[in-house]
Write a structure and sequence with these properties.
With 132 residues, this protein is mostly beta strands. The protein has a single domain, classed as OB fold (Dihydrolipoamide Acetyltransferase, E2P) (Beta Barrel), CATH 2.40.50. It contains no helices and 8 strands. The chain has strands at 9-14, 20-21, 36-41, 44-53, 64-71, 76-81, 91-97, 100-105. A 5-stranded mixed barrel has the order 4-5-6-8-7. The protein is elongated, with a radius of gyration of 15 Å.
């Protein structure tokens, strides 16, 4: 992991209902619209939970840190954070490293907000509802 790795996560955005989602390709998971486009989120998020696997699958480092992060765009990701794993509530920068999402503690304060019309992490946005 490079100390200067770029922050950012490639997400999909629905042009009909404006929800952000993963995976990037395919229809909107909320309204079913095919009017979607990819974009890069700044990748700033809040850790919801974290742990370290003491007995990870073969080929993985031991201990193997994991964190569940919600980025400002409202999308939740399982990431491999830099050690030691951040605690719940900490602000992290998330980026993609191939097929793996990685994270590190952010110098950005929790009260700051990025640009765009994305909801704040932990906001009162409605829970995900699948299309009917």
């Amino acid at each position: 992991m490079s100390a200067d790795a770029p922050a950012g996560v490639r997400l999909g955005k629905c042009m009909t209902c404006h929800v952000r989602f993963l995976p990037v390709d395919g229809p909107c998971p909320k309204c079913g619209s095919r009017s979607t486009e990819p974009y890069v989120s700044p990748g700033i998020g809040t850790v919801l939970a974290s742990t370290s696997l003491e007995v990870p699958p073969p080929g993985w480092q031991r201990p193997h840190p994991l964190a569940f992060v919600e980025v400002e765009d409202g999308v939740r990701l399982l990431v491999v954070p830099e050690a030691p794993p951040p605690g719940a509530g900490e602000v992290v920068e998330v980026w993609q490293d191939g097929e793996v999402y990685r994270a590190r503690r952010s110098a950005r304060s929790e009260g700051e907000r990025g640009e765009g019309d994305a909801p704040r992490v932990g906001s009162s946005r409605p829970p995900f509802e699948p299309p009917r």
